[in-house]
Amino acid sequence: MSRLSNKVCLITGAAQGIGLATAETFAREGATVVVADLKPEAVDAAVRRCQALGAQAEGHALDVTERTQVDGVVAKVLARHGRIDVLVNNAGITQDARLQKMTIEQFDRVIDVNLRGVFHCAQAVADAMVRQGHGVILNASSVVGLYGNYGQTNYAASKFGVIGFTKTWARELGPKGIRVNAVAPGFIETPILATIPDKVLDELRQRVPLHRLGRPEEIASVYAFLASDDASYVNGAVIEVSGGMSV
To answer: 234: alpha, beta or left, given left = phi > 0 and alpha = psi -120 to 50?
Structure first.
């Protein structure tokens, strides 16, 4: 039997990049995949890809910064399936600038999506998971949330904050049978890197002992492990998946 058979898994930001790779990996592992993302047409395409892999899948347009939308999607999933076994808080954005140049709007937008959005989604599923007596919440942090990064005051703060969420919720929800963990990817080949010049990307590759960027599916496979019963004693962990950047 596949590792995620009979598990209902809600993934935010699931229409591209790491989120899409995670949705597809979960589909291969037998999960019922709930794709949530901003653009309805991209959500539909991701659902079709999961279904093509043999999975039961459905999609919902969702802005994680809008609590009423989050509550609505969670209610629909619970009404249809009766439970949510796994939440992957993957949705995130960047709006980079140095401290002296960063606008309040840039700061607020990144914090709103990357931090408040994670809070919204986790709080929305927590009561259902407590009633079930089991559940897994997986949060997307970043190596930037471990070490900081030039020009990313807002992003680094949000990803440090996600680690704080993870460790706090692991303590609060662990006794209820709910595991909470975070993954801290390094530099991964996704659309979020599209604006970075080739010269800078080459420099990033040289900073990684493996001398390459990561692939989305390499992050997705770690999420799949953490979502599965194979990780039944992993709680409150922050797993760096960076090719050894911190070595």
So the answer is: beta
> What is the phi/psi pair of residue 207, to 5°?
-80, -15
Number of domains making up the chain: 1
Question: 142-181: per-residue pLDDT in tens?
Answer: 999 999 999 999 999 999 999 999 999 999 999 999 999 9
Residue 95 Cα distances to 63, 92, 110, 143, 205, angstroms: 17, 10, 7, 17, 22
Q: Which residue has the tokens 């797993």?
A: 239
In a domain, 12, yes or no: yes
For the chain, percent of residues with pLDDT exceeding 70? 100
> CB 169: neighbour CB atoms within 10 A?
23
Q: What is the pTM of this model?
A: 0.97
* Domain containing residue 176: 8-238
Pair of tokens at residue 116: 């408040």
Which residues are tagged catalytic?
Answer: 155
The pLDDT assigned to 196 comes to: 80
| Element containing residue 240 per DSSP (H, E) | strand 238-241
Cα 158 off chain centre by: 13
Tokens linked to 245: 């950047």
3-state DSSP percent of the chain in helix, strand and coil, to 5:
50, 15, 30
Domain assignment present for residue 244? The answer is no
